[in-house]
Automatic annotation (TrEMBL):
Keywords, alphabetical: Membrane, Transmembrane, Transmembrane helix
Membrane-traversing stretches: 58-77, 83-103
UniProt lineage: Bacteria, Bacillati, Actinomycetota, Actinomycetes, Kitasatosporales
UniProt organism field: Streptomyces vietnamensis
Name recorded for this polypeptide: SpdD-like protein
Length: 110
């Protein structure tokens, strides 16, 4: 069960994928295939994208509430993990004290 097994490869199918070696050239020139506008129509220019995100007061309140909620959830998780570590440390300390008293009691009886 614990000994490694070598996988058996299936029989070859006859389809061989060729190995392609990349070729690098020193001068790479852009290739233009067609003109940008071949028609005689006049189109309006595209609007410039806005540079900043605009938030309404309601949107800002939602973002602040979401951030505060995320901070509270992360804080609760971290506090619960700290509490779990503290409880574990206390139980280990109690076990150590009990074992120490038991071992000291056995040495006194001898």
């Amino acid at each position: 069960m614990f000994q490694p097994r070598i996988p058996v490869n299936p029989l070859p199918t006859g389809i061989v994928t060729p190995l392609v070696q990349p070729t690098f050239t020193a001068d790479i020139a852009p290739h233009h295939t067609a003109d940008a506008a071949a028609c005689n129509h006049h189109h309006a220019p595209a609007p410039a994208p806005s540079s900043a995100v605009r938030l309404t007061p309601a949107g800002l309140a939602v973002v602040v509430a979401g951030g505060a909620g995320a901070v509270l959830v992360v804080g609760a998780v971290l506090v619960s993990m700290l509490l779990a570590v503290a409880v574990s440390a206390a139980s280990v300390a109690v076990c150590a004290v009990v074992l120490r008293s038991l071992l000291n009691g056995q040495q006194r009886r001898r």
